[in-house]
Amino acid sequence: MQDKFYQKSVEETLSSTNSNRQGIEESEATKRIETYGYNELEETKPKSAFMVFLSQFKDLLVIILIIAAIISMVSGEVESTIVILVVITMNAILGTVQSIKAQNSLNSLKQLSTPHTRVIRGGKTMEISSKELTIGDIILLEAGDVVGADARIIENYTLQVNESALTGEVESVEKDVAVIDSECGIGDQKNMVFSSGLVTYGRAVCVVTAIGMDTQIGKIASLMNETKERRTPLQLTLDDFSKKLSIGIICICIVVFGLNVWQGDPVMDSLMFAVALAVAAIPEALASIVTIVLAMGTSQMAKENAIIKNINSVESLGCVSVICSDKTGTLTQNKMTAQQIYRNHELINASTLQETKPIDRMMLLGFALCTDAQTTNDQRIGDPTELALIDLLETYHIDELATREKYQRIDENPFDSQRKLMSTLQIIDQKPVLLLKGACDEILKRCHKIQLDDGIHDITQEDKDMILQRNEAFAEDGLRVLGFAYRYVDKKTIGMEDEEELIFIGLVSLMDPPRVESKDAVENCQRAGIIPIMITGDHKVTARSIARSIGIYHDGDICLEGMELDAMADDELDEQLENIRVYARVAPEHKIRIVKAWQKKGNIVAMTGDGVNDAPALKQSDIGIAMGITGTEVSKDAASMILTDDNFATIIKAVATGRNIYANIKNAIIYLLSGNLSGIICVLAASLLGLPVPFLPVHLLFINLVTDSLPAIAIGMERSTKDVLKEKPRDPKEGILTKDTIKQLGVQGIMIALVTMAAYFIGLKTSWQIATTMAFSTLCLARLFHGFNCRSKRSIYRLKLMSNKYSVMAFGVGFIFLTAILMLPALHSLFSVTTISLEQLLTIYGLAFLPTLLIQAYKTTKDLHLGK
User: Fold this and answer.
1) Does the structure show a pLDDT above 80 at 697?
2) Which residues, 6+ apart, have CB-to-CB distance to 408 below 8 Å?
3) Cα–Cα separations (whole angstroms), residue 370 to 200, 448, 490, 762, 796
4) Residue 324 DSSP code
5) What distance in Å separates the CA atoms of residue 368 and residue 316, rounded to the nearest whole number?
6) Radius of gyration in angstroms for the set of CA atoms belonging to the chain, rounded to a whole number
């Protein structure tokens, strides 16, 4: 187990790392680099494109088709062989393109490290590549530096570090040297700095305690390496479906082959008959159709500000039952904002100060002058809390730079985490004025007067109690509070001793406020049967306050800290899981544990986030959602979906799209299987009756690849209904072939088979060639008509025929193709058809339309009965 350096003194840390304040010698550094390696992250080697391509041929349906192609080639059916192999190869290429994603997570993590770091080696200060940092190096940090490794602070000069990449929290952390006795998480290890942290204020001297994969960033990289991408519910459902279908097809083909041989047919003819049956049964274009429908869904979602990296994740959204959301930058604005001001014993909105009042003027001057942050057109420099004060000044049309130019700072006492104050000295109205900003309780200790609307008065204990009560109320609401005070002095330089006998002005509360749309988005989540969970690195009080304000947390719910989660056994967490709505002060490993706990209960979990600390959980979740604007490259690489507007509400639109896409894919599968079932029934019937084959392999391939594909894709384009979010998330364990689905398939398949066999028997009265032509044409056209039936559970009367123009176009294209094959003699030999009479053609049209007429009559009656 790695040493807990935050619990060790400076001298103990230097001893543990075999270092001293003068730094290790260059020769020693070289030895340590040989021992510990370079300060860099290890990468995992991704699968090659060729191996990914080969893996696409593992599917049983594909193997059956390959066997069918080999048999066709041996028997001289060259056209069938070519068509089957082309289809298989196209599907494999599509699958490869889907599977190969850029594995950039660790590369992005690498980019977080600074290229150079200032160190002390052998008593000399020098700059080295951060890659060459090693255990025991003494590093020098100052404002603007990015920390190159994990290190223990040995000398601190008001250091503040933004650790949002690790903790997800926008507020800079005030650092300290003091030993921390108790166990604590990363966010509370005030005497440590971590790789990727950005120094926003002050400076420090530190000793390196961990490098490379042993740093906190390295641990995240390890978690990401260990976390395997989960297969989506659709992939699992289709795998299960393919397996069952394959076994069924193999069994039927063996039975038919045996029957034909038993009846005295030649072995090769019997084998070809079995091949025809396999081709009839397998929905060759299913994989392509699913891919195309999902791709259409990703295109639609991109227009709605959601970019999908893995198209299989589109459908996963449809059965998401839990959304674990990061707070900062996801549910909140990722920007500290002034909320309310307390002065003159009154609580007012931060934007309602009156510059003409002396007390309010002094408050505004404190915001502008007793801060170091500044903003320009393209830059925001400084601590987020101070930037919030500058932003507030802009609402009053006050330019902080112009104000500082007018009232120039002539001296200052920088912020100190021990005294929790900063003070500046400037000339205001020809008088030297000391302005102070800091913790309320520390300022009150130093105040002997208070400014009110009617002037300056001696501060009483009652005044102090009222101020402290307001400060406590702000804290209970999860707000950060700053106090402001001032005094007049008679000199041009100041020291700490001058921060006494102050005049209290007031308090300002600040917070990272919720996004405007977050509350509505949470309500929509809950209406859709989805449980929203907040996971944050922020403090418990703040997290609970934000969660309560947007509707995630309610009375009776549990708010848990990371340390409390660590103390929980898995069975205890399982027991309380559904009551825990907020997790605070969490580490990356906590987030993965929370996601896994929900997954263990059979839930499909979405995880949103924008920081490096979110990346492992984004990868572990069923659907990782990263923020496109504020998100780090690491989180984007680990996620399945990226929100280009960083809007939590966009997730709900994506969920609606995901649910609709699954419904459309299921309808497309019903369309394909019911049509293929009709072909199987026809082939089996002919076999049992001892009749010639009603179709040739080329007929079935044409139906499956041409006239089936376009209507199936059109079904995938069906628009969603308004009620899609009123439904509960579907059970991911529920297969495609439910009892109701099988019943629907059976009835529809039998209806199409009956009219097809009717056409076949009518044709047999003339010749076998006419019979096969009529059977092929009837089956083909009946399935084209059937595309309208499979658009929805509702009737075309209610849906309106032209509400899906793609469905009408698909029917038109298929009808034209079929008519061309029947009418153009040049195509007869290619598709193994013969010339038919007008009467036979009209018979085909009438028989083909009959199943659709009956199905639509049933659906219309049902709609009218339900009052839809």
Assistant:
1) no
2) 426, 427
3) 17, 20, 19, 97, 70
4) E
5) 50
6) 36
655, 674 contact by CB (below 8 A): no
pTM: 0.64
The C-alpha angle 499, 503, 504, rounded to 5 degrees, equals: 105
**In this structure, are strands 502-511 and 480-488 parallel, antiparallel, or unpaired?**
antiparallel
pLDDT averaged over the chain?
84
Across-strand partners of 451?
456
Element (DSSP H or E) covering residue 506? strand 502-511
**Do 810 and 714 meet the contact criterion of CB atoms below 8 Å apart?**
yes
Q: How far apart are CA 748 and CA 745, in angstroms?
A: 5
Give which of 225, 229, 228, 205 is closest to 217, Cα–Cα.
225
Residue of 702, 694, 705, 675 lying closest to 827 (CA atoms): 702
The C-alpha atoms of residue 678 and residue 756 are separated, in whole angstroms, by 8
* Range 532-542 average pLDDT: 87
Structural element, H or E, at residue 809: helix 805-823
404 C-beta neighbours (distance < 10 Å), count: 16
| Residue 115, helix vs strand vs coil | coil
Name the 3-class secondary structure at 692: coil
Tens digit of each residue's pLDDT (9 = 90 or more) over 813-829: 999 999 999 999 988 88
pLDDT, tens only, 319-365:
899 999 888 777 888 788 999 999 999 999 999 999 999 999 999 99
pLDDT at site 103:
39
Residues forming beta bridges with residue 208, ordered by sequence position = 151
- CA nearest neighbour of 441 among 465, 412, 423: 465
> With b meaning 16 or more CB within 10 Å and e meaning fewer, what string describes 86-100?
ebbeebbebbbebbe
Token match 């089936």: residue?
708
Tens of pLDDT, residue by residue over 372-396, are 888 877 677 778 889 999 999 999 9
Give ∠ CA 347-353-359 in degrees, rounded to 5. Answer: 85
For residue 383, how far is the Cα from the chain centroid?
A: 29
Separation between Cα atoms, residue 764 and residue 329, nearest integer Å: 72
Judged by DSSP in three states, 594 sits in helix
CB 670, CB 741: distance < 8 Å: yes
By the 8 A CB rule, do 331 and 550 touch? Answer: yes
What six digits make up the tokens of 595?
């996601």
Distance CA 504, CA 142 (A): 33
Centroid of chain to Cα 749: 40
396 vs 508: CA distance, rounded Å? 16
Residues with catalytic roles = 326
Whole-number Å distance between alpha carbons of 312 and 293: 10
* Whether the predicted pLDDT of 533 surpasses 50: yes
Query: How far, in Å, CA of 708 to CA of 700, rounded?
Result: 10
Cα–Cα distance between 109 and 717 in angstroms, integer?
39
Tokens of 168: 């997800």
CA 520 to chain centre: 19
Q: How confident is the model over 173-193, as a mean pLDDT?
A: 89
Mean pLDDT of 522-548: 89
Angle of helix 60-74 versus helix 267-281 axis, rounded to 10: 140
Pick from 579, 710, 604: nearest CA to 658:
604
Q: How far apart are CA 669 and CA 244, in angstroms?
A: 14
DSSP-assigned beta bridge partners for residue 412: 424
Helix (H) or strand (E) holding 579: none
Q: To which residue do tokens 């009418």 refer?
A: 823
Dist CA 801 CA 23 (whole Å): 80
CA distance 646 to 631: 8
**Which helix (H) or strand (E) segment is 749 a member of?**
helix 739-764
Distance of alpha carbon 525 from alpha carbon 533, whole angstroms: 11
Q: Which residue has the tokens 């609307």?
A: 453
**Which one-letter amino acid corresponds to residue 705?**
L
- Token pair listed for 847: 């028989």
Comparing CA positions, the residue from 754, 755, 769, 753 lying closest to residue 844 is: 755
